[in-house]
Amino acid sequence: MEDNKPIVKVYKKFLEQEGYEVDVAYEGDEALEKIRGEELPDLILLDLVLPKVQGEEILKEMNDIGIIKKVPVIIISVKSDEENAKKCLETWGAKDYLIKSNWSLSALKKKIKTYLD
Amino acid sequence: MKRGRQKSGLSNGSKFSFFDKDYYLKGLADNIKDAVAVFDSDKKIITINSVMKRISGLRKKKIKLSEVLESLEKKIKTRDNKKKKDLDLERAVDKVINDSKKFHIKECSVDGKFFEVSINPIQDKKRGKFGGTIVMRDITRLKEIKEMKTEFISIASHQLRTPLTSIKLFMEMLANERDGTLNKKQKEYVSDVRESTERMISLVNNLLNVSRLEEGKLKIEPRSDDLIYFIKDVIHGVMQLANDKNIEIKYNYPQKELPPVKIDRTLLHQVVHNLLTNAIKYSPSGQNAVIEVNLKNRKNDYLISVKDSGIGISQEERKRIFEKFFRSDNAVKAHAEGSGLGLYVAKIIIESSGADMWLRSRKGKGTTFYISIPHEGMSKKEGAKSLVN
After folding, report:
1. d(C-alpha B243, C-alpha B247), whole Å
2. For residues B358 and B389, what is the distance between their CA atoms, to the nearest angstrom?
């Protein structure tokens, strides 16, 4: 769930090469629809700043409909605000909070693996 | 008449001056934006301007100095809630009168506005005694502008992160050669772009750290640690950089084990790391240069020093070395990459944690930076944010 097209493109390409199936939501409302749908993903990479519905709202909805424990969420954000991160992790139950520019694809791959295994 | 005119500093043209010295002084004081009060050695108010009256909330005609001080003490709030004794203005005035000692509060607030306060001595030359001035400068607007600047840096840096991430990740894809192999030149270019991108990312992180430090919202969390091994760790982190330039790093530390020292690992790491990378950057390459790191357990503190064998820093530049964005002539001449933020960040971290930092340098003899950490360790500070690495 990410609105920046080049970033989506590179994540998608990389993860597909790694053998994962990738589904993208570019906007917040699209993301909401996906988490309310029947087929849930195994893991969500979530950007906090999305058009229409913000990332926090999506986390909140995942809590409300009780799927936050089933689907691990990794936040990938440009915000390095600690209060923000704390809220996402402690209040909304996200698994991890990564600062976008500080993570390489290979490091991200390792993170994803730890939550999928 | 003639003498009086000269003394009051009036122009020679005003023959019928009705200015008496007191009116002159009052007019002057009332027409400046700072709050001003002047007192003599008997603690009698000589002049108090309308701004000072307004701030202290005293509107009557005859005002005593003690009333002004008492009212200000009640109204002044400092950010870190200074202890009462630091805000004892009565004592500050006594010190001005008796010891001609200056008093200064860098920033405090009164009724939602921000002020810089100083109480300074003025000598009554005839009687050889000291009176003084209380000046409160309204820095509210200045603070607002500073905050706007900090916010701007924060927003701009965050905005830069998205495009930088995309460059970084695409370059990683190219370097991995999953979509086709690269020839030697192409590999070299990709590696150059990656290096520059990482530099930009670290610059953005540094800028954000600077705005955090300047906002004063940085959290300092000292925990007991082994200082000897901590420094070893930091040195270990820069070994590759030093090896690349054929520089040896010597580390001398006390043979006797030290008691645990309270340090904020992340913050102190940043400081020592900055000093080490600087020392490496400014040491001549390929001449078997040596960087000496010393840790000493002194009577009142632990002293960490980092000595390089660079060309030294001139006296003029030493004064400015901790300024933001300052880059010495050497740095520019040596084409050493840098943003001029490293030492600035280091200095703020050290000063806000109750430690101290300084340098010694002689042209041609290298430079030594010193960090002194009191035995009781770095001081804790509550805050909302920590550094981005």
Report:
1. 6
2. 24
Asked if B29 contacts B47 with a C-beta cutoff of 8 angstroms, the reply is yes
Structure tokens at B25: 């002084």
The angle at the Cα of B174, spanning B169 to B176, to the nearest 5 degrees, equals 95
Residue B318 confidence (pLDDT) above 70: yes
CA distance A69 to chain B (A): 28
Which domains occur in chain A, in start order? 5-116 (3.40.50.2300)
- Out of A61-65, A77-81, B305-309, least confident range: A77-81
CB-based contact, A19 to chain B, within 8 Å = no
Domains, chain B, in order of start with CATH, read 32-138 (3.30.450.20), 143-215 (1.10.287), 223-374 (3.30.565.10)
pLDDT at B249 over 60: yes
The DSSP symbol for B381 reads: B
Coil, helix or strand at residue A66: coil
- Mutation pick from A77, A80, A108 vs chain B, by most beta carbons of B within 10 Å, is A80
> Which residue intervals of chain A are DSSP H helices?
5-17, 28-36, 55-64, 82-86, 105-116
Residue the block writes with tokens 């950010």: B79
The Cα–Cα gap between B122 and B128 comes to: 10
Note the ipTM here: 0.89
- How far from the centroid of its chain's Cα atoms is residue B300's Cα? 24
Chosen from B150, B153, B155, B165 to mutate, greatest number of chain A CBs within 10 A: B165
- End-to-end, the C-alpha distance of chain A in Å comes to 21
- DSSP 8-state secondary structure symbol assigned to residue B364: T
